[in-house]
Amino acid sequence: MKSRLILAFAAVLAIALAIAPATLRTQHASAATGISLSGLNPIQKRLLSGFASFEAGVGVPAHAAAARVGARMSSTSAGLCPSNIRSDVLVNQNCLNVADPGLQGRAQAQNETTVAQNPSNPRQIVGAYNDYRRGDGNCGAAFSRNGGANWTDTTLPTGFTRGTAFGGVAREYWQGGGDPSVAWDSRGNVYLACQLFQRGPGTTNNPDQSSSVYVFRSTGDGGASWDFPGRPAIETSTTTGAPFNDKPYMTIDNHTSSPFRDRIYVTWTIFAADGTAYIWEVNSDDYGQSFSAPVLVSTTSSLCGNTFGLPTPQGTCNENQFSDPFTSPDGTLYVAYSNFNNSVTGNDNRNQVLLVRSTDGGQTFSAPVRAMDYYDLPDCATYQGGQDTFRACVPEKGTAQNSVFRAANYPSGAVNPANPKQVAVTIGSYISRDSNESNGCAPAGFSSATGINTYTGVKTAGACSNKILLSVSNDGGATFTGTTTDPRNLPVVNTAPGQARTDQWFQWAGFTPKGTLAVSYYDRQYGSDETTGNMDVSVSTGSVKGPFRVARATSTSMPLPTQFPDAQGNSLFFGDYSGLSAQAGAHPLWMDTRTPDAFLCPGTGVTGVPPTLCQGTEPSGIVANDQTIYTNQLPA
Description:
Blueprint: H1 7-13, H2 21-24, E1 26-28, H3 42-47, H4 50-56, E2 68-72, H5 76-80, E3 89-90, E4 110-118, E5 121-131, E6 139-144, E7 152-154, E8 160-162, E9 171-173, E10 176-184, E11 190-197, E12 211-218, E13 231-237, E14 244-252, E15 264-271, E16 277-284, E17 295-296, E18 320-327, E19 333-339, E20 351-358, E21 369-374, H6 380-383, E22 412-415, E23 423-429, E24 442-446, E25 453-456, E26 467-473, E27 504-511, E28 517-523, H7 529-532, E29 536-542, E30 548-552, E31 579-581, E32 587-592, E33 599-600, E34 613-617, E35 628-631
Parallel strand pairs: 1-13
Antiparallel strand pairs: 2-34, 3-35, 4-5, 5-6, 6-7, 8-9, 10-11, 11-12, 12-13, 14-15, 15-16, 16-17, 18-19, 19-20, 20-21, 22-23, 23-26, 24-25, 27-28, 28-29, 29-30, 31-32, 32-35, 33-34
Helix pairs in contact: 1-4
């Protein structure tokens, strides 16, 4: 997700882009003037990832609410140092830092998870996440050597990289980072991709607004240590915030039969000053020591009939985001991504998932095929009292308006190792077989203020609810069951009775070696989650033809997040995605909010009164909480 700078947005539009692929490897911005947030059009604000938009200050109030500090903690050590919760295993092993009330989340939170198992030894697992412990965001990680029963923190050496691309200096020191992804090769090495960035003027006195994506390798020790410095997948040197690279993700072809065995692929989106957002790819065939020149992923297509009146320097599919690369045993690279160039009429507000293939190791890509259509989450400000403007969210039902953390539906795909011609793609959709006009949920176009989807029935219990759609190809990605099927008629993986009228979102999908599809996601089917905004994590497993078995991963429900709060004390940022590995069983890795936050008690920590720690309550009435990382192994 995403974590770039506050120039993330200056980045978004401050670019002079019509860059040929050969010049993309190391980017240098011209002396163009950065564009303010007011210069962004609705489609740009909509597509920018949640983390990037949060770091850019989009929809973020100038002053966040401060929690009301209340009861003292009965045990400081127990309160600050979380542990396993029943069967839920704590992944990050740090104790909670105590931040000032106006900085909730900073120096504390972990979110936006990714996880992978060693295909040669699935008991070796590495998880990664955005990690704010040092104050600003960074890429954090932990590793397990016993199948996820116990975890150890590991530190990525992200403080600086070589400065050759940044004016020929010796070092480029980085202020923040995030958007991690993790993957193993076939020889026992694990890799982590991380975006690093500078914040620039307005936040610091440093004019540097550079951003880049680096890949770090853990050579043979399962994530316990990392090679230094990170190797650049893409580097952008700028004092204007342009161009801006968003939402990177990495995969590795770790199939021993593949002609491209152990090739590393990284995809990401470039936001341009001309308003476009194309997806690019680089690859490495020397274990991450160096990377190729960028190759265009989001190629032109007749499927992209609405170019928003914007330039098309790389083709008509000029608005894309959330790329997910994955590979097949025969060496085929697939990239699924959300595309927003489809034409709609009337109140319809669907978008499409496109998929491209590369059979030559990422050097060229096929024309895109439509994997399926989907409906994105609703405009937050419209339904939640004006909160979190220019972002979508997952509103709870009824009169409460506390569920405002930014969220978007994104694709996650995988190849069935037991049937390599079978490709499955999942995505969340607000309109589905369970949420449509028949039960009071209907598309209502787009917000005139933000350009984000609106619907009837958003706050009505039993009407709208987000579901995880499934589309399958049985011919190696040439065609999909969702290519011409309306989202209202596609199968969903959320098949438990309690899921028919409740929300599920932030999914990830993977196949087991025997061909079982596993999909993890946040879930509001339990207890009063749908009206309180509380949430759980569930995992659906089964054949792509169904039926699916739904299992609860969390042992108890989680309250709504409160870190990174708005003026009402409601969290604006909870991550952009949540990961899963299914190499041996299903291992979801999620952001958890069951650990209370801690504050300095009023009247303590002054002359003559030793400091004491207290819990706090947000203006919304929710007990202030931390964002930590948990997992649980489920059968698959």
